Amino acid sequence: MNVDEMPQPRGRFENRLEAELVRVVAERAAAVPGTLGAQGTAAKSRTAVVWARSPGPVERIAGRLLRSPGLARALVTTPSLLLPWLIASAAVLAAGAAATIGTGKPMVAVLAPAVAAAGIAYAYGPGIDPAWELSRSLAVSDRMVLLVRALAVFGLDAGLGLAASAASARAVGITFGWLVPMTALCCLTLAVATVARSANTGVGAGLAGWALLILGGQASNGRFTAAIGDPALVLPYLAFAAVCVVIALYATRTPKGTR
Amino acid sequence: MNVEITDLTRRFGRTQAVAGVDLAVGAGVFGLLGPNGAGKTSLLRMLATVIPPSSGTLKLLGRDPGSYPQRRQIRRRLGYLPQNLGYYAGFTVAEFVEYFALLKEMPPERVPTAVATAMERTGLGDKARAKLRTLSGGMLRRAGIAQAIVNEPELLLLDEPTAGLDPQQRVAFRALLRDLGQRATVVVSTHLVEDVGAACSQVALMDRGKIVFCGTPAELTAQAEGTDAEGDAPLERGYSAVLAAARTSTGAW
Prior knowledge:
Largest sheet of chain A: none
Helix content of chain A: over 70%
Number of domains of chain A: 2
Oligomer: heterodimer
């Protein structure tokens, strides 16, 4: 055995240091309410190990981009950005792509706006967030959290929709045509969800509005894509989206008179 | 003074929840007593910057919450436990406390230790991995308290913090309050007089939007002397006496 590996006799200093550490830990455990002496101390060390969480790569990148670890955390906990939701969205759009290929009808263009609108409603805006009251007292404002979440959901669903459109080449003619209606529909959903303070109401309004447009186009022109690819509708869609954004901003303002 | 309020009012439509409150609160535990509907929660929500006042002036930690940059600075130093704690059912206790620590803009490197400490102080150390949906009402309340104290706030606002806690937990919580009050301003809204007697150095009694008494718990107790006020404990009798006097003077019950 090497001399360095042999147990060395402990000096008085080491013994005193150890005794001091034990005393401090015991005193702290006794002084901190809600802990039970040695059990509390043991639990503390256990807790520090148990709960320690290192942010994943997405959260780390988002934290750098947004310059806020809090916003990044809020973003990755968005219900409509969680894996099950993303899988469901991708599955719906994949089914749409398959239907497009099979029937030649641009089903992706019909489904993508609806999927994005539902995701936006479940981005946990003010009043819909279960911890809304608490979120109103935080340094990172609830409006900023909603903005980041809504943009992320929109961007991701748009990406999924574009991928599905590209995969179903027969509908390539309106690959980008549905992006503008999708924007308007998402803004409608957001506005209704924040005003009604209910994600379900927002989804209902969005889907009902979209269904009316699709069925209206079918009834008037015999084409259900009439409301999607018509360049003349771009400006009305954008104007409608702007109005909805104003309504959402008004609904999420700091209340002055009544609540 | 960490809380300075002058002629503060808050209206909800035709209802005046807070009707001209003047208050100055320094370090220590400050109890806010009053019957249901007295305006305690509305006052606390204004202190938490959740709602703005309808009129009057409010200064928190020497800053004006009406200005966005100053409000953000206040919120970094604020801990708040609302009466109805909303929570994310799928979060674990640790995730819940960590989430709010990050949104309070705590430096990320300080968050792990702060979360562990907050959970230990509220006796939730062994529940760190438990999902919130599996917790009892008392444990949820403690998780709420943990998120409120995680950033070691300079101003801690607790609305009915002992609701749902069992007697043993309430005793431990009062000790925690006294400990926190040594370094920060802690405002506790409650209708449980015994909480105030055990933990608070100062107390205000609200009724119909106004503060009708402000002093120490001993001074509140003394208000019952020479009256036939009802109550099982001296402090309760003082509470009843002040309330009766306030309502008699305005001719309303």
